[in-house]
Amino acid sequence: MKEIYEEAQSQAPTPAFINYLSKMKGQGQSPLKVNTKDILTSLIGGFITIISLLLLTSITSSTWLMASFGATCVLAYSAWNAPLSQPRNIIGGHFITSLIGMCMLHWFGNSPWIIGLAVGLAIATMMLTKTTHPPAGANPIIIITGNYGWDFLWSPVLIGALIIVLIALIINNLRHNRAYPTFWY
Question: Quick one: residue 109, left, alpha or beta (phi over 0 = left, psi -120 to 50 = alpha)?
Fold first, then answer.
């Protein structure tokens, strides 16, 4: 009987492991607030931005839209004052991560290991350059799996990010209580 007790004790979770798991329970309820004007601004801003990029695509027969731009719109309009939503982060984050994806694709190919490494390098580089923009983390995946050429860096990546910032400047500053951006560099 003593052996069974000792074996059960040795298999019991350690206090450090229990402490680690307790961090995952959260700290309460969401601090996010719902405001009708913010919802409408975000709806209009996202709509105008994506429609503008799609219209440019149809007029020029070049690609102006990529999936990560939808997520950028979420930040640019619903979290417009967050550091990760500022022009430096939108433009720099999209360009840097796309450049990393492009280099990894053209130097090493498109294996799963390269995609994973490219995303990791993109995150680290955004942090080092203070251009962290979460939607841009998808760009290496988009570029490597799509096997895009170097011109993809200019359109849609760089020009598309500039268009998003331009429209966000206009839409966000129409509201008297918003001043976008909170910083440029």
Answer: left
Residue among 153, 156, 138, 136 at smallest CA distance from 56: 156
Please provide the DSSP assignment of the chain as one string: -HHHHHHHHHHSPPHHHHHHHHGGG-SSS------HHHHHHHHHHHHHHHHHHHHHHHHHSS----THHHHHHHHHHHSTTSGGGSHHHHHHHHHHHHHHHHHHHHHH-S-HHHHHHHHHHHHHHHHHHT---GGGGGHHHHHHHHT--GGGGIIIIIHHHHHHHHHHHHHHTTSTT--S-S---
pTM of the model: 0.87
* Spatial CA neighbour of 91 closest among 170, 158, 152: 158
Q: Where are the domains of the chain?
A: 35-172
Contact predicate 139/13, CB 8 Å: no
Question: How deeply is 146 buried, as exposed, middle or buried, from its count of CB atoms within 10 A (0-12, 13-18, 19+)?
Answer: middle
Phi first, then psi, for residue 87 (nearest 5°) are -50, -45
Confidence of residue 14 (pLDDT cuts 50, 70, 90): confident
